[in-house]
Amino acid sequence: MPKNKTHSGAKKRFKLTGSGKVLHERTNKRHLLEGKSSRRTRRLDGVSELAPGDSKTAKRLLGLR
Q1: Contact 23, 46 (CB under 8 A)
Q2: How far is residue 23's CA from residue 47's CA, in Å, rounded to a whole number?
Q3: What's the mean per-residue pLDDT of the chain?
């Protein structure tokens, strides 16, 4: 029986914490930043927790459950 493969796109986008939460980077921080306010781009810094419904899908793509 072959092994299940991790979804390549998902492993680049999501990170799991020790307690099982799924973290992701916020959108709108890649390009066209001159038109966005500094306040907005600072708010988009860092990582945030994925919504519960989406984290279920992400965990499945990462090969968990």
Answers
A1: no
A2: 6
A3: 96
